[in-house]
C-alpha cells in the first residue's frame, strides 16, 4: 500500500492545481486519475481524421475578469489568441432568424434596457470570490431564470434574446437554471456587455498547455487509469481504493471530480447532507458541444438563438479550404452529436444551404467521469448547498470548478477551488 501526505482524486484543473499547491507546501502528493489523460472536462485534441487541433471541452477564458487564471498566465508566461471578429450574424428570436448586426426595433429598446438594467443591478448584490455564492439576502435570486426574467414584462423577441444567453452559456434550459448562478457570471463580467464582448481569449497550444505547466511545476506523482471506487477515513488516515483493487493511504484526500460523479465513489463515513444532495440531484449542465467542418465561409459568422437547436453557433477557424464551426445545444435531448444529418439541419437554421462535410464531438453527458458538462446550479441549490460543499469532511477535502466562490463552471473557478482545497489540506496536516 502506497502512503503519501495528500492524495488528489482527479487531474483536471482543480486537481493539478491542488496537487501543485500541496507539493509546494512541502507535502508528498499522488494524483489518481481515472482517464488516460489529464485535463478533466477540458480536452484539446484533433478533429477526427484531420490535423486541426480543437477544444472539445472547456475553452475560453477572460483573464481581465478572472484573477486566478490571469495569475497562472502571468506565472508561466503563456500566450493567448482570440476568436475571430464576427462579420455575419444570426439571431434566433421571435420564431425567425434575424441576420442584422443588432436585431431589435426601436420600439423594443426600452424593454431591453429595463431588463438589462435590472440584471446588472441584481448582479451587483453578489460578493464574488470572497464567499460562497449562497450569501444572505440572495434567496430571491435562487429561482428559475425564467421566473426571474418574467418578473419584468417583455416583448417575446426581447425575452427570447435574454433567455438564449444562459441557455448556451450554462448548457441547460433556462427554467432549470438558478438565476443567482446566472447573475454571478454577469457580476464577474462587470455588466451584461461582457456576455457579448469579452469572451474571446484562448490558450495558444490549447488548454493542455496550462495543465501541463501546472502539473510539471512541482514533484507530483500521477497514476492514470486509476478509477477510484472507495474512500475510507478512519480518523487517523484515509484509504483510497481503485476499481482495479489498488490501495493507497494518505493523511488527507482532495476530491476534485465533478459533483455529478460523486455517486460513483463509496465514501465512509457517508458524505454530509449537502454533498449527498448534489450527488443525487446533480447539477443541470448537459450541453452538447459539436464541431462541424463546412466548406470555407467568407466572413466569420456568429449566431445565438432561443428556439434554434444550436443556442450558439460560431465560425472559430477558417483555412484555405474549410471552416470549423462550433455549436452548443442545451441538452442531448435536442441533438445527437453522432447524427450528421441532424447537425447539418441545425447548422442550416442559421446558415441555409451550407453543407456539413463532417462533425466531431465528445459526449460528456455519457462520460462516466463527468456525467454532464460544466456547473449549472439548479434553482434552490445555491442557497442550500454552495457554502457547505466547500467544507471538509473529516480528512476528505473537496475542490473542483463546480464549487467555486467566483467563476463556478470555468477554468478560473477550478483553479480557485484547487488552491482553497490545498490550503485546507495543508492546515489539516499542520495539526498532526
UniProtKB/TrEMBL annotation:
* Gene3D superfamilies registered for this protein in UniProt: 3.90.660.10, FAD/NAD(P)-binding domain
Annotated SUPFAM superfamilies: FAD/NAD(P)-binding domain
Query: Amine oxidase domain: which residues?
Result: 13-424
Cofactor(s) the protein needs? FAD
Superkingdom assignment: Bacteria
The UniProt keyword set, sorted, is: Oxidoreductase
Q: Which InterPro entries match?
A: Amino_oxidase (IPR002937), FAD/NAD-bd_sf (IPR036188), Flavin_amine_oxidase (IPR001613), Flavin_MAO (IPR050703)
Q: Give the record's family classification.
A: Belongs to the flavin monoamine oxidase family.
Q: What is this protein called?
A: FAD-dependent oxidoreductase
Amino acid at each position: 500500500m502506497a502512503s503519501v501526505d495528500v492524495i488528489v482524486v482527479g487531474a483536471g484543473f482543480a486537481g493539478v492545481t491542488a496537487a501543485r499547491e500541496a507539493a509546494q507546501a512541502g507535502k508528498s502528493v499522488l494524483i489518481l486519475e481515472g482517464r488516460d489523460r489529464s485535463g478533466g472536462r477540458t480536452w484539446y485534441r484533433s478533429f477526427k481524421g484531420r490535423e486541426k487541433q480543437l477544444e472539445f471541452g472547456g475553452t475560453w477564458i477572460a483573464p481581465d475578469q478572472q484573477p486566478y487564471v490571469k495569475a497562472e498566465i502571468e506565472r508561466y508566461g503563456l500566450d493567448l489568441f482570440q476568436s475571430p471578429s464576427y462579420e455575419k450574424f444570426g439571431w434566433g428570436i421571435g420564431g425567425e432568424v434575424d441576420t442584422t448586426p443588432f436585431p431589435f426595433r426601436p420600439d423594443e429598446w426600452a424593454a431591453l434596457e429595463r431588463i438589462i438594467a435590472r440584471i446588472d443591478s441584481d448582479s451587483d448584490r453578489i460578493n464574488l470570490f470572497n464567499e460562497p455564492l449562497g450569501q444572505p439576502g440572495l434567496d430571491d435570486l435562487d429561482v428559475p431564470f425564467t421566473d426571474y426574467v418574467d418578473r419584468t414584462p417583455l416583448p417575446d423577441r426581447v425575452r427570447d434574446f435574454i433567455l438564449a444567453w444562459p441557455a448556451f452559456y450554462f448548457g441547460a434550459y433556462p427554467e432549470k437554471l438558478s438565476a443567482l448562478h446566472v447573475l454571478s457570471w454577469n457580476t464577474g463580467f462587470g455588466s451584461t456587455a461582457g456576455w457579448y464582448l469579452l469572451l474571446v481569449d484562448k490558450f495558444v497550444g490549447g488548454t493542455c498547455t496550462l495543465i501541463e505547466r501546472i502539473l510539471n511545476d512541482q514533484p507530483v506523482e500521477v497514476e492514470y487509469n486509476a478509477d477510484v471506487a472507495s474512500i475510507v477515513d478512519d480518523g487517523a488516515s484515509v484509504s483510497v481504493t481503485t476499481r482495479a483493487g489498488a490501495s493507497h493511504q494518505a493523511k488527507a484526500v482532495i476530491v476534485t471530480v465533478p459533483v455529478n460523479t460523486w455517486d460513483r465513489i463509496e465514501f465512509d463515513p457517508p458524505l454530509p447532507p449537502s454533498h449527498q444532495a448534489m450527488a443525487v440531484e446533480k447539477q443541470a449542465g448537459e450541453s452538447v458541444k459539436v464541431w462541424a467542418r463546412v466548406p470555407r465561409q467568407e466572413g466569420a459568422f456568429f449566431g445565438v438563438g432561443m428556439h434554434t437547436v444550436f443556442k450558439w453557433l460560431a465560425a472559430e477557424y477558417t483555412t484555405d479550404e474549410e471552416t470549423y464551426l462550433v455549436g452548443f445545444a442545451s441538452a442531448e435531448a435536442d441533438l445527437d452529436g453522432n447524427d450528421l444529418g441532424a447537425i447539418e439541419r441545425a447548422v442550416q437554421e442559421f446558415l441555409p444551404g451550407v453543407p456539413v462535410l463532417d462533425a466531431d464531438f465528445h459526449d460528456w453527458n455519457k462520460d462516466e467521469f463527468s456525467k454532464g458538462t460544466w456547473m449549472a446550479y439548479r434553482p434552490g441549490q445555491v442557497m442550500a448547498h454552495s457554502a457547505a460543499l466547500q467544507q471538509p469532511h473529516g480528512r476528505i477535502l473537496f475542490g473542483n470548478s463546480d464549487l467555486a466562490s467566483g467563476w463556478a463552471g470555468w477554468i478560473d473557478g477550478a483553479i480557485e477551488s484547487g488552491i482553497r482545497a490545498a490550503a485546507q489540506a495543508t492546515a489539516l496536516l499542520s495539526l498532526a
